[in-house]
Specification:
Length: about 220
Amino acid sequence: MNINELAEISWFHGGDDIFQEWSFPPPMKKNQNYLIRHSPVFFTANKEYALGAGKRLAVSSLKKDANILNTISNYAASEKLRVMTSKIQLMEKSLNVQHDFWHRGWLSGDVLRYAWTDVDLEHHFHKEIRRNCEEYDMSKEYGTYVFNLNLTRSLIESICKCAFDMGYDGLFGHEVDRHSVEGKTLSQPILAVFRENVISSPVWIGHNSCGELIG
């Protein structure tokens, strides 16, 4: 898929607040200071998947002069991104940066969920979960959920920072989706945008509590 094809797609973004222009980095939701902040703005071509992120839906289009790293069709660029990402401390022991896992993972979406087999890394993660539970007065169950969420955010930030450092305006690939359809694992198309000047301003589509269009 080339830039002209990506520019013809309607890109959706779900959220709870309405605004007139995209912010980079996007604002954090209230009472979520324990979450790692994303620097890109994320979009998907699937309207229903976007609504999973909030009750309101915005649509934008990508500009044709945007320099987007297509992790699926541009093998050379994707491979360079893999090598760069593998040098980051968080990523070097992950399965995500192994050659086959990486390239297959951009189709399945699995590359955007941290995977590991290293025992020492496992022990380190358990220590971090205990520390977070104490610091933020969380239950073990919720602390584990927050840790895994931040691990995913850190992984995505690491990849996006490398793509940004390579000179790209954004990144296209797939994200694994295990929540939209019970019992099924889906692959959702996503676009991470790093700069405001390559994406059109948001156009908001209102939804009522039943999911029906109201505007």
